[in-house]
C-alpha cells in the first residue's frame, strides 16, 4: 500500500464499488425488509429504531426526517435522562452500552405497542445493549429488522452473555457490506481510513423505505411520509400527519 493510494479518489472509488454491490445484491433482502415495514404501517404500528455510536446516523435516516415515514421513533441512550429522569452524568460513561439492563429500560420508556417493528442498527452487531434490545423485543413478540456488517459480526466474538449476536435474532438482515473495522482505505504500516457503514447503511434504509411505500401504494394506501419543514406548509402538514400517532411518536430537538 503506497501513500499515493490514500486519497479522496481512492476512498470514493472503493466506496462506490461497494455501494454498487449493495444495490445490486440486496434486492431480495430489501424486499423482505420493506414487507416488515409495510406490515407495521398497515397494522397502525410505529417503527422503533435503535443504534448506538455512529449507527445513530442511520437511526436518524429511519426516524423523523423529510421523505421518511411519520410513524417512527428514535430510541437513544439519552432517553434515560430525557424520559427516565436519570442525571445527565450517566451519559458520561463511554461504556454505558455494555451495561446490562439498559436496553430493557429504554424499551420500557418507549412503551412500544405489540405491532411495532424494531429496526436495530449496529455495524458489529455484538455490543451488549444492541443484543439485549433485540432479545427483549423478540421476547415481546416484535419483528426485528437488522442492519449490520456480516463480515464484521462474523469475525468477532459475541459480547452478550447469551452468546447471541444481532444477526441471530433478526427476522430480516440487511448487510451493509462494511469490512472488519469499517474503514476501507489501508494505510502504510497498518490501520485504515474511510469508514463505509454509514454510506451503505443510509442507502439500505432509503431503499427499504422506498420499497415499503411501493408496497403500500400497490395496496391502495397513501404512505404517511414527512415533507420538509423548510418548505411552505411542510411543518403544518407534518403536524396533521403526526396526530394519528399522538402519544406514540416522540419528537425532540436534535
Automatic annotation (TrEMBL):
<dbReference type="GO" id="GO:1901135">
    <property type="term" value="P:carbohydrate derivative metabolic process"/>
</dbReference>
<dbReference type="InterPro" id="IPR046348">
    <property type="entry name" value="SIS_dom_sf"/>
</dbReference>
<keyword id="KW-0413">Isomerase</keyword>
<dbReference type="GO" id="GO:0097367">
    <property type="term" value="F:carbohydrate derivative binding"/>
</dbReference>
<dbReference type="GO" id="GO:0016853">
    <property type="term" value="F:isomerase activity"/>
</dbReference>
<dbReference type="InterPro" id="IPR001347">
    <property type="entry name" value="SIS_dom"/>
</dbReference>
<dbReference type="Pfam" id="PF13580">
    <property type="entry name" value="SIS_2"/>
</dbReference>
<dbReference type="InterPro" id="IPR050099">
    <property type="entry name" value="SIS_GmhA/DiaA_subfam"/>
</dbReference>
<dbReference type="InterPro" id="IPR035472">
    <property type="entry name" value="RpiR-like_SIS"/>
</dbReference>
<protein>
    <submittedName>
        <fullName>Sugar isomerase</fullName>
    </submittedName>
</protein>
<feature type="domain" description="SIS">
    <location>
        <begin position="37"/>
        <end position="218"/>
    </location>
</feature>
Amino acid at each position: 500500500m503506497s501513500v499515493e493510494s490514500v486519497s479522496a479518489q481512492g476512498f470514493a472509488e472503493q466506496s462506490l464499488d461497494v455501494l454498487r454491490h449493495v444495490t445490486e445484491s440486496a434486492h431480495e433482502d430489501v424486499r423482505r425488509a420493506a414487507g416488515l415495514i409495510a406490515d407495521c404501517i398497515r397494522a397502525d404500528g410505529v417503527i422503533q429504531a435503535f443504534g448506538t455510536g455512529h449507527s445513530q446516523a442511520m437511526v436518524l435516516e429511519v426516524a423523523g426526517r423529510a421523505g421518511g415515514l411519520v410513524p417512527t421513533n428514535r430510541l437513544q441512550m439519552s432517553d434515560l435522562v430525557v424520559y427516565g429522569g436519570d442525571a445527565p452524568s450517566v451519559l458520561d460513561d463511554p461504556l454505558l452500552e455494555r451495561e446490562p439492563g439498559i436496553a430493557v429500560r429504554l424499551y420500557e420508556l418507549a412503551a412500544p405497542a405489540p405491532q411495532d417493528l424494531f429496526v436495530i442498527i449496529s455495524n458489529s452487531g455484538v455490543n451488549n445493549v444492541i443484543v439485549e434490545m433485540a432479545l427483549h423485543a423478540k421476547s415481546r413478540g416484535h419483528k426485528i429488522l437488522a442492519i449490520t456488517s456480516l463480515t464484521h459480526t462474523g469475525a468477532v466474538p459475541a459480547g452478550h452473555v447469551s452468546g447471541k449476536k444481532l444477526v441471530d435474532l433478526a427476522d430480516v438482515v440487511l448487510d451493509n457490506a462494511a469490512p472488519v473495522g469499517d474503514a476501507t482505505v489501508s494505510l502504510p504500516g497498518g490501520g485504515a481510513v474511510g469508514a463505509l457503514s454509514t454510506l451503505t447503511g443510509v442507502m439500505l434504509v432509503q431503499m427499504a423505505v422506498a420499497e415499503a411505500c411501493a408496497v403500500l401504494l400497490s395496496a391502495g394506501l397513501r404512505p404517511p411520509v414527512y415533507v420538509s419543514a423548510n418548505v411552505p406548509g411542510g411543518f403544518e402538514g407534518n403536524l396533521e400527519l403526526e396526530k394519528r400517532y399522538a402519544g406514540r411518536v416522540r419528537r425532540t430537538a436534535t
